[in-house]
Amino acid sequence: MKIKITIVLLIFSLFLTAMPFSFAQTSQNDWSAVQKLTTGTDLFIKTSNGKTIKGSLVTVNDNEVELSVKGSNRVLPRNNIEAIYFAVPKSGKRARLIGAGVGFLAGAAAAGTLNRDVIDERDYNYSALVYFPIAGLISGAFIGGLFGKGKKKGALIYKAK
């Protein structure tokens, strides 16, 4: 019985997570797909002059889209819109990996610098060779994760003819 409930809940949650992308499966030049979006949906809008505007949806009607961009509302006429995309979060995985690599190398360099003037082997700090690179790896991954946040273009919702 518990397995059946788990399976039903899993299928239901997969259905809910796939709903925002169901709009992308309609015709790409269908304005009604844009009108079905809910308030607060994060979007990228490419204008006819080539600029890309990132914002949160406020309202949509037959002739224009209103976005909240950095705290102020901006109205874009439909005839000036070339394409509209969902904004999806970046994973930040690449930035964390780069940060971890740089942190590891910085920790290894610091450990090597700490021991460079040692003459007697008994004074050599072996623990620094282990702990500095590990501390650098962890802190570098954390800092890389902070820089890797943001949003990127996702599925295409609307494209002008």
Give a concise summary.
By secondary structure, the chain is α+β, with helices and mostly antiparallel strands. The chain has 4 helices and 6 strands. It has a 6-stranded antiparallel β-sheet.
Kindly describe this structure:
This protein has 161 residues and is of the alpha+beta class. Helix content is 41%, strand content 28%. It is built from four helices and six strands; from the N terminus they run H-H-E-E-E-E-E-H-H-E. The protein has helices spanning 2-18, 31-35, 93-114, 126-147; strands at 42-47, 52-60, 64-69, 72-77, 81-89, 151-159. Strands 4-3-2-1-5-6 form a six-stranded antiparallel β-sheet. A hairpin with a 2-residue loop joins strand 3 and strand 4 (72-77). Helix 3 runs antiparallel to helix 4. The protein is elongated. The protein starts with a helix and ends with a strand.
